[in-house]
């Protein structure tokens, strides 16, 4: 047992010694590799050339290609400076529902490769060559707002200057997220940001700066973008900043692209047809209000406006955050048409009060409508006053006998002077029947006259209300149009 206890500490010491030797050998190996890499980078700091050959030799460049995994800096404590500039060539699409902006950029990047340096005098005067980009180290610069796969056409070559300055031109189809404001559609302006920065390298490794001034980039973009398309470039702004996340910091460049929509298409296809339909609805008030065609015409107009909105629905932007002002405009126009139809229904009901026979116009309606409102809207009308009829001298008189029968007597004769009075008793049944017919006719004419008077009074009430509601309708449409135009103008001026 004592021997077993003495053997254990010696075994542990042997294991610790072996682990220390292995770790020391690993550190020595890493140090030798780093020294080898440092000596190699110092040796290839300038490419070699052969007489009779233009440009650096393939062997010297192959040594540089083998260093692709390493950042091309002799002193790794010095960051690599990358310069960026782009030209906005086209705005391919704006999807308001998904809040995505699709653009096409001509992107240009510059950086310094300290291993690709040669003397033009030794290389037959060659100052610039093209090399495949896949053979060289390139900064991992991305757009932070990128939300789709990169389907841009690849540009596999770069230009390398004899001083090690690399230029990489490529085309970029950028699908980026953007907070799109569509309230003032189609007179809207959008401000979208493009943030360029390295994904992995911090400011200790890669620093970013614009290759051109922001004014030059804006001027170049306007020259290509103003030719055609739905959108035009208003301005291109930018700034450089540092993005901090935890203890690490990244150098970024943020560009703000301000674009404005050309509203001619939407004004011609949306606003003008809607204004025409509203104008026809206003002119429909000049149809006779007692005509049934007026109500059917307005119903047909509402149906046509609904079909117009369904057809033009694809042209209107839609988002979950809000509704454009033009959508509210169409909804209110449809509501005004419905109100116009309701007004026609009310006036038609007033004008057809003759179905309720012998119902006179209330006194308060006479005072309020036929007097005050009529004076307010300058409506003039005259009542039909007929003077009481008096029997003429030579007209026959109708007298009632005790038996309830009517006897017609000439005005110029008396019963004593009538030569046919002796024969009156013989014709008494026929005269009684004729008198009864005349009495029924008199009652019917009296009823018709009273009904016509009541109908005429209700017609005047309906016309006065129609004039009043028509003017209120015109006032509502005018105020609504002024409010919409003012909101659009204020929004454009603020933008």
Structure description:
The chain has helices at residues 2-43, 58-65, 214-225, 264-283, 292-311, 325-351, 363-376, 428-494; strands at residues 80-95, 100-112, 128-132, 141-143, 157-161, 165-177, 189-198, 206-210, 231-245, 248-261, 397-400, 406-409. With 495 residues, the protein is α+β, with helices and mostly antiparallel strands. Among the domains are: 58-262, Neurotransmitter-gated ion-channel ligand-binding domain (Acetylcholine Binding Protein, Chain: A); 266-379 and 470-494, Neurotransmitter-gated ion-channel transmembrane domain (Methane Monooxygenase Hydroxylase, Chain G, domain 1), CATH 1.20.58. It is rod-shaped and about 155 Å long.
| Biggest β-sheet: strands ordered side by side in the sheet | 3-5-6-2-1-8
Biggest β-sheet: count, sense, barrel? 6 strands, mixed
Strand content: 15-25%
Shape annotation:
rod-shaped
List low-pLDDT spans.
1-10, 37-42, 354-358, 384-416
Number of strands: 12
Gyration radius, to the nearest Å?
49 Å
Count of runs of 4 or more consecutive helical residues: 8
Helix percent reads 40-55%
String of helices and strands: HHEEEEEEEEHEEHHHHEEH
CATH superfamily of the domain at 58-262: Neurotransmitter-gated ion-channel ligand-binding domain
Would you state the CATH class of the domain at 58-262?
A: Mainly Beta
**N/C terminus separation:** 92 Å
Pfam family, one: Neur_chan_memb
Catalytic activity: Na(+)(in) = Na(+)(out); K(+)(in) = K(+)(out); Ca(2+)(in) = Ca(2+)(out)
Organism: Zoarces viviparus (Viviparous eelpout)
Domain Neurotransmitter-gated ion-channel transmembrane: 270-484
């Amino acid at each position: 047992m004592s021997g077993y206890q003495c053997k254990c500490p010696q075994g542990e010491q042997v294991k610790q010694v072996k682990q220390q030797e292995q770790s020391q050998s690993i550190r020595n190996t890493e140090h030798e590799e780093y020294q080898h890499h440092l000596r190699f980078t110092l040796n290839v700091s300038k490419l070699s050339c052969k007489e009779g050959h233009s440009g650096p030799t393939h062997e010297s460049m192959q040594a540089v290609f083998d260093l692709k995994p390493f950042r091309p800096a002799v002193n790794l404590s010095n960051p690599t400076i990358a310069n960026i500039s782009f030209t906005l060539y086209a705005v391919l699409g704006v999807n308001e529902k998904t809040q995505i902006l699709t653009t096409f950029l001509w992107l240009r990047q510059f950086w310094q490769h300290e291993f690709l340096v040669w003397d033009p005098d030794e290389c037959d005067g060659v100052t610039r060559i093209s090399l495949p980009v896949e053979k060289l180290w390139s900064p991992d610069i991305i757009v932070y707002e990128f939300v789709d796969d990169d389907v841009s056409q690849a540009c596999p070559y770069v230009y390398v200057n004899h001083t090690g300055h690399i230029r990489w031109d490529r085309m970029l189809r950028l699908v980026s997220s953007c907070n799109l404001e569509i309230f003032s559609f189609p007179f809207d302006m959008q401000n979208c940001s493009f943030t360029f920065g390295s994904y992995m390298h911090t400011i200790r490794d890669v620093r970013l700066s614009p290759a051109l001034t922001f004014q030059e980039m804006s001027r170049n973009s306007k020259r290509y973008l103003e030719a055609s398309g739905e959108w035009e470039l208003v301005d291109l702004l930018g700034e450089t900043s540092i993005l901090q996340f935890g203890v690490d910091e990244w150098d970024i460049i943020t560009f703000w692209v301000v674009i404005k929509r050309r509203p001619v298409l939407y004004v011609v296809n949306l606003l003008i047809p809607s204004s025409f339909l509203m104008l026809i609805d206003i002119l429909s008030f000049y149809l006779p209000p007692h005509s049934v065609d007026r109500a059917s015409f307005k119903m047909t107009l509402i149906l046509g406006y609904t079909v117009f909105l369904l057809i033009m629905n694809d042209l209107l932007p839609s988002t979950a955050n809000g509704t454009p002002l033009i959508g509210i405009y169409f909804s209110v126009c449809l509501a005004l048409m419905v109100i116009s139809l309701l007004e026609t229904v009310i006036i038609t009901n007033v004008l057809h009060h003759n179905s309720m026979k012998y119902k006179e116009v209330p006194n308060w309606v006479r005072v309020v409508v036929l007097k005050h409102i009529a004076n307010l809207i300058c409506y003039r009308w005259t009542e039909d006053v007929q003077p009481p009829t008096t029997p003429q001298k030579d007209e026959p008189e109708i007298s009632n006998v005790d038996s309830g029968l009517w006897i017609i007597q000439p005005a110029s004769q008396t019963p004593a002077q009538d030569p046919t009075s002796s024969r009156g008793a013989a014709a008494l049944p026929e005269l009684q029947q004729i008198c009864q017919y005349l009495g029924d006719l008199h009652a019917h004419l009296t009823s018709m006259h009273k009904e016509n008077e009541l109908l005429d009074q209700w017609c005047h009430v309906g016309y006065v209300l129609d004039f009043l509601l028509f003017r209120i309708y015109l006032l509502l449409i005018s105020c609504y149009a002024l409010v919409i135009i003012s909101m659009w103008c204020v929004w454009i001026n603020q933008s």
